[in-house]
Design a protein that fits this description.
This protein is α+β, with helices and mostly antiparallel strands. It contains 13 helices and 28 strands.
Length: 514
């Protein structure tokens, strides 16, 4: 009986398998113990931490090269100096400073006649940077006193200087400087150089007398990167600066002053401003913006009307929903679709990235503007271009109910007025959150480049369009819509179960036949 048991082939193979498994585990444990002891004794360690490389992109080189060439052709001498406030040895010993230093030196090597890099040891010789202790605050547009640190970076050009903190060249998660998320050095340095060497001064005035609760900081940083000097204005009480060529009203909650009781008409002020070549006025609204009759009447004259649903004595602004093209389950954070015809398409050509409109209201062309059949509408000297619209699956809601299909709902528009000496513009974006941090501070969404392109379309010649932040980790998942998420969730949940079930059925059938 015992001999029969040992001679059983299945038992013999099973025993050998168990013995081999025990031997493999034993050898593995002993090997780990031996190598662990030797590594600790002799320092056999290799860093497995990811090493990041941030080579300057050709887009950046091209952008700066084109600007330098253009300015030189106009008779200017574009030269910028980048000053680091520490020794080269210290800069290359710390990764966050090293990335920035390598970016700066790469730019200087490509354009030695236009960019130079200097390293000063301000610990031993603080006088080298004493003349630069005043700098521009991009959030207020004011010149302020600043303390220059060893991590500061100074960009200098003729009659211009700007002190940057090291943090300005990085992006932090939730604004916490302990949570480093992405490198922004290429874009920020390029923007700083472009701002420094641009011989023209561009001022943007942000209205502050219409209940604007908050200007998102990311919008202010973007305006700074675009080369604008930021200022604030009360249109009712203050005169528009002579060098201002852009006015923005971001999320107004009170109306323009335009009545017989007032000696001041903000409508007339805007008309006078927009009668000058190259000036533009931009408005950001959303579905939560209250009804503003004077504002909306003024924009109607520029070809933009707003959709409302009337119930009883109340009017409800449209809310654009698109569950098939949304980043959120409620369907109100949607992708806009670029108009692909005519000059509308030409204005936004070759822009990449999904463009996000959150909590958007619906716009349409105003009465009297003739449809040109290519996304544009014309009346007299004004042509309104629809730039982004709702998709074919979009639906408008108002007062808690669907009221209309919104596949033709305009989400972003630009109207050109042809004046005697040139053109002026009015732009409207139907989403306040279009310029929120989540969408501007992103490597995958196209909102930043859309705004930069828009400023170029209205006359701002040089902007850092096409340059983006470089995340330390991939953020591609953020481009998936709710419909796609549902598809992959179901697929990854059901597919493995079906595969395992199919294999099990095949095995059972074969065993029975055997």
């Amino acid at each position: 009986m015992k001999k029969h048991f040992i001679r059983n082939r299945k038992v013999r193979y099973g025993g050998i398998t168990v013995i081999l498994a025990i031997l493999v585990v034993t050898v593995t444990v002993l090997s780990n113990a031996v190598f662990g002891t030797l590594a600790e004794r002799y320092g056999w360690y290799t860093s497995m931490t990811g090493t990041y490389s941030y080579d300057v992109t050709e887009d950046c080189y091209t952008l700066l090269g084109d600007m330098f060439a253009s300015l030189s052709a106009e008779g200017h001498t574009p030269k910028a100096e980048i000053i680091f406030c520490d020794t080269e040895e210290n800069l290359t010993a710390e990764s966050t400073q090293l990335y920035l230093y390598e970016t700066a030196t790469s730019l200087a090597e490509r354009y030695p006649e236009n960019i130079t890099v200097q390293c000063y040891d301000i610990w031993t010789n603080p006088n080298t940077v004493r003349n630069y202790t005043t700098t521009l605050n991009p959030l207020t547009g004011e010149t302020v006193e600043t303390t220059i640190k060893s991590t500061s970076v100074i960009i200098i050009a003729e009659n211009y200087h700007r002190v940057y903190s090291l943090e300005e060249f990085y992006v932090f998660e939730d604004g916490n400087t302990e949570n480093l998320w992405a490198y922004n050095g290429e874009k920020k340095l390029a923007a700083g150089i472009m701002h420094a060497v641009d011989p023209e001064e561009h001022v943007v005035c942000l209205t502050n007398n219409h209940g604007e609760i908050f200007y998102d900081y990311e919008l202010l940083y973007l305006l700074d990167d675009a080369g604008y000097t930021v200022s604030y204005i009360d249109l009712y009480r203050q005169e528009i600066p002579e060098n201002c060529d852009l006015i923005i009203s971001y999320n107004p909650n009170t109306d323009l002053v335009e009545d017989e009781l007032s000696d001041v008409s903000e409508v007339e002020i805007l008309d006078a401003f927009l009668s000058k070549e190259g000036n533009s006025f931009w408005v950001f609204l959303e579905n939560g913006t209250p009804e503003l009759p004077n504002f909306e009447k003024y924009l109607e004259g520029w070809g933009v009307d707003f959709e409302y649903h009337t119930s009883g004595e109340r009017s409800y602004r449209y809310m654009v929903q698109d569950s098939s093209q949304s980043l959120t389950s409620d369907g109100y954070t949607i992708y806009g679709e670029a108009v692909n015809d005519g000059h509308s398409a030409e204005l936004m050509r070759e822009l990449g990235g999904k463009v996000v409109f959150k909590n958007a209201t619906a716009m349409t062309s105003a009465q009297g503007f003739v449809n040109n059949g290519d996304g544009s509408f014309t009346k007299d000297s004004r042509t309104m271009y629809s730039l982004y619209e709702g998709s074919a699956n979009a639906v408008s809601w108002a007062n808690g109910s669907p009221v209309d299909t919104a596949n033709n709902a305009i989400l972003m528009s630009l109207t050109e007025q042809r004046n005697a000496s040139g053109s002026s513009y009015v732009g409207v974006i139907a989403s306040v959150d279009f310029s929120a941090e989540d969408f501007l501070q992103s490597a995958v969404y196209g909102n930043t480049d859309v705004l930069l392109r828009s400023f170029r379309n209205v006359g701002k010649t040089y902007t850092p369009e096409g340059l983006t932040i470089k995340p330390f980790a991939s953020q591609d998942i953020s481009t998936i819509t709710t419909r796609q998420m549902l598809f992959w969730t179901i697929g990854l949940s059901v597919a493995p179960a079906l595969i395992v079930s199919a294999v099990a059925v095949v095995i059972l059938v074969r065993r029975r036949r055997a």
